Amino acid sequence: MMFMQYVWLIPLIPALCFAIVGFFGNKMGHKMHEGGFLVIAGTAASFILALLVTLEYTGLIGEGGYYPDAYSYSIDWFSLGGYTITIGYYIDILSCLMMLFASFISTMIFTYSLGYMHDQGVRQRRYFAEVALFLTGMLGLAVSSTLLEMFIFWEVMGLCSYLLIGFWSFNHPEGDDKADNAASAAKKAFLVTRLGDVCLMGGLFVLFFAMDGHLEYSYVFNAHNLAAANQDMLFLAALLIFGGVIGKSAQFPLLDWLPDAMAGPTTVSALIHAATMVKAGVYLVARCYPLFILEPNMMLFVAVIGGFTAFFAATMAMNNMNIKKVLAYSTLSQLGYMFLSLGAGGYLMATSMHVDGGAVVIDNMHLFTAGALGYSAGCLHMVNHAFFKALLFLCSGSVIHANGTEDMRLMGGLLKLMPKTAITMLVGTLSIAGFPLFAGFFSKDLVLDVVFEVFEETADFAQVIFVILWVLGIVTAFMTAFYMFRLWFMTFMGNYRGGAHGHCHGESPANMTVPLMILAVFAFAAGFILFLGWEGVMTFRFQFGNFYVGGGEREIGLDVLIELFTNAKTYITIVLVFVAIGLAYLMYVKKSINPGKFNKNGQSALYRTISNRYYFPELYNQLSWKLGYGIAKGVDFFDKQVIDGSVNGLSNSVVGGGDLMSKAQSGNLHTYAAVVLGGVVVLFVAAVVLFAQLGGLF
Question: Which helix (DSSP H) or strand (DSSP E) does residue 564 occupy?
Fold first, then answer.
């Protein structure tokens, strides 16, 4: 063991950076960017250690790998009511993936921030301290060994999300309206995600009692332990946990907070709402896969939510003119793809097994291994999306930095003025659009393959559901290619339309463009990980006692490419991508097709509905005022009239009684004698009555 025992340092290093920069950042001076260099160095150190741990885990360095078993270490934290709560770290391939891309992309974003946030002066201290704390939460979540420990880091990320979205809340350079928007967006994100977090907390309580007081991964996700538990309680726990996922990963219906969260700095959008935090929900579903696949209806629900969100969010990106919000809707849509893949694959696995006599029995190993491909595809798309979406957001930040606006109608012609930004953003656009051989192409094709395979392997109601989800996935792929190239053409082609101030500042500095170039390499090449055999590594394995049942492996190298391009369904998406790109070119470059022709120049009912986000903000406001405000008034009435009334009534009775008794203290001897005599008479009468009631002498 060389590096595995130092896993705890991976989240600790950025935590120390947070503490140092938070207390002493201003003393580090402008040359150190108020502690920014320290945070970048710490993040890079966490990435290097995560890389070494991954290499050791997979057996590429050290005496021997730990794969496919998980490496875990825990200590007793505290005891409560006969239960012992532990804390520690748990390393498997899913943990390694999360650690690697979270720390690497964060290093790129923090380096980019040196240029993007350079004008913030001493406020850089707050920014770099908060992003360091956020990364602590993300890395801590990735290496946690129990669901309770995971939940703590989950909440740390939620706090940092609120703080960073509202970073412009005070003294924003673009005016008070922008500050108000940032404050409102931060509160909205905090409140909406708290709804999900309450569900998650409830799910953990249910799971805690269903598993006899255990929340450790090594215990909870063992097949025999799951089979021995109450299956109804496990289903309820899974449902509530997924409620937390819906909130954190902004899936339908709790999706409207994420577009508003673009009020924060673009680096925050790249870090939290594209590359890392919203992936926490995907990570949690993948982590809890053994729990979720016990019930087919649970996985069907996950797939339906994911598939519908992918389509629903993509429609809202079709006509939006804000460059960051287009990317925000794209994030929602791509997250939907991940849940669609996990749900579809999990449904196949759930229908291929059952619980019998306290044991999990696999009835159809073919379906089980086929379903495990959904896990592989979902995880691969999670990694690919982290690279190309971080790249796209940072490129949009470069454009905003140079032009002073987020409105694409004020851009155009930036290919000549900002060539590095334009080319790197083109790479990210091609990748997310699923252009052949780019990273997004491989993972998106695998996702759609898995969904179609579920359609082929199921029957009746489920077959109808999954063919609809496959069609939605195909249509979403077309829309994604269209709106992303619409964004790129409007921003970089044609004539420059003046920006916010009538001119463009030109290409961004090297500390912003170099991270773009590095991320562009991964946005193109990350999909080729399949040819290195990592599809077999990045797959789901179910632990039965001391051994694993796995699935999802395919042949590596050229066989993957041959299988991919001999599949007729692959060419459906390829053709749709090319058609979408061509249509966007004709509309926004050649101008031979007028977009206003289809929407009656913005007056059609469909156009207005989509522009207003299907009126979800109004729905949220109505629910808040009618339901939330009504409940708040009821609670306030109960608090004032019942709680305060009881306390005040008791207090008044004591005070009144004291006042009454005080009047007897007159200082007059005759009065005191009369009171004593009266008391004796009352006691005598009471004694006689009681004596008579008890039967007297006889």
Answer: helix 558-565
Smallest CA-to-CA distance from 542 within 288, 222, 292 is with 222
Q: Does residue 145 contact residue 87 with C-beta atoms inside 8 Å?
A: yes
pLDDT of residue 164: 92
384 close to 526: Cβ distance less than 8 angstroms: yes
Cα separation, 92 vs 357, whole angstroms: 29
Rounded Cα distance, 510 and 284, in Å: 36
Q: Quick count: other Cβ atoms within 10 Å of Cβ 179?
A: 18
Tokens of 87: 């804390």
Structure-block tokens of residue 483: 């709106």
- For residue 406, what are its two tokens? 């987020």
What's the token pair of residue 370? Answer: 């086929």
pLDDT at residue 175, as a whole number: 47
For 585, residues 6+ apart whose C-beta sits below 8 A from its C-beta are 485, 489
- Token pair in block for residue 485: 């190239």
**Contact, 171 vs 179, CB < 8 A?**
yes
Q: So what's the pLDDT on residue 645?
A: 79
Residues of the chain with pLDDT under 50: 175-176, 547, 555-556, 698
First to last CA, the chain: 92
Whole-angstrom distance, CA of residue 313 vs CA of residue 336: 9
Q: How far apart are CA 675 and CA 664, in angstroms?
A: 9
- DSSP string across 39-83: HHHHHHHHHHHHHHHHHHHTTSSSS---TTSPEEEEEEEEEETTE
Gyration radius of the chain's alpha carbons: 31
How does DSSP assign 182-240, residue by residue? Answer: HHHHHHHHHHHHHHHHHHHHHHHHHHHHHTTS--BHHHHTBHHHHHHS-HHHHHHHHHH
Q: Please calculate the CA angle 45-49-52 and round it to the nearest 5 degrees.
A: 140
The closest of 203, 366, 212, 187 to 264, measured between CA atoms, is 187
Cβ proximity of 316 and 329 under 8 Å: yes
Tokens of 494: 């044609």
Closest to 129 in 3D by CA, of 262, 25, 274, 12: 25
The reported pLDDT for the residue numbered 425 is: 96
Q: Strand pairing partners for 91? A: 71
Q: 84 has which bridge partners?
A: 79
Residue 297 and residue 101: Cα distance in Å, rounded?
32
* Residue partners of 640: CB distance under 8 A and separation at least 6: none
322, β-bridge pairs: 407
C-alpha 64, offset from chain centre: 34
What are the Cα distances from residue 604, in Å, to 313, 318, 599?
Answer: 19, 14, 5
**Tell me, what's the pLDDT at 426?**
97
Residues in contact with 461: Cβ distance below 8 Å, sequence separation at least 6, in sequence order: none
- In angstroms, what CA-CA distances link 553 with 207, 372, 507? 31, 9, 45
Give the model confidence (pLDDT) of 268-306 as tens digits: 999 887 667 889 999 999 999 999 999 999 999 999 999
Amino acid, res. 529: I
Contact of 613 with 259, CB cutoff 8 Å: yes
Cα gap 684→246, rounded to integer Å: 74
> What is the per-residue pLDDT across 594-618, written as a single tens digit (0 to 9) for each?
887 777 776 788 888 888 888 888 8
CB 25, CB 125: distance < 8 Å: yes
